[in-house]
Design brief:
Blueprint lengths: L1 H6 L5 E5 L9 E4 L6 E3 L15 E4 L2 E2 L10 E2 L3 H10 L2 H4 L2 H8 L4 E3 L6 H11 L8 E4 L5 H9 L2 E4 L3 H18 L3
Parallel strand pairs: 1-4, 7-8, 8-9
Antiparallel strand pairs: 1-2, 2-3, 5-6
Length: 183
């Protein structure tokens, strides 16, 4: 997603979870210009404006492809997840405006299964037991009955197609939309 924004010269803010080191368990804000800033007090953090530009939130950390790989910090193993989820309350680590936006947004899940316990825990931390009130979608090929039930409980519509098929059709639709021009 970051690459797509950069290709069209669209500014965005990046908020990433820090999985390693002394700041482990906090989030880092990288604005389009300037230095990255540690989000020390999420409830008081004001340097993020959802009205000014898009925000990309990486709740599992990030790989720094263009930068030094020493700065890579991400949750990947089951032990990472256990540590992450038992010591982290996302709603108290992410800036309040961003948490509010998560409660009132559409979601598109690409290739996720709610059989993955770690995703269910993260979603539960964000939404608790509430169903999503905004239309949301999951792209999942041949979802099993258990997946269908998990998505249904969250009020998420499943599209039974492969990610490749979905992306190809999305690309086709976007090109057609762009070819039509402004309405």
């Amino acid at each position: 997603m970051e690459q797509a924004f950069r290709q069209v010269s669209e500014e965005f803010d990046l908020v990433c979870y820090i999985a390693e080191g002394e700041q482990r368990g906090k989030f880092l804000h990288r604005p389009p210009q300037g230095e990255a800033r540690l989000i020390e007090k999420p409830n008081e953090y004001r340097d993020l404006s959802l009205e000014q530009r898009p925000v990309i939130l990486k709740i599992h950390g990030a790989v720094q492809r263009e930068a030094d790989s020493e700065r890579d910090s991400y949750v990947i193993t089951e032990d990472h997840y256990i540590d992450y989820l038992t010591h982290t309350d996302l709603s108290s680590l992410i800036p309040v405006k961003l948490v509010a936006k998560l409660h009132n947004s559409h979601f598109l899940f690409l290739g996720y299964s709610l059989r993955d316990w770690n995703l269910r825990v993260i979603l539960h931390r964000i939404w608790r037991d509430q169903k999503l009130t905004w239309n949301s979608w999951a792209i999942q090929m041949n979802p099993e009955p258990l997946d269908q039930e998990f998505w249904r409980k969250r009020n998420v519509e499943i599209f039974n197609v492969s990610l490749e098929e979905y992306i190809a059709e999305l690309d086709k639709q976007l090109l057609a939309f762009l070819a039509r021009g402004p309405a």
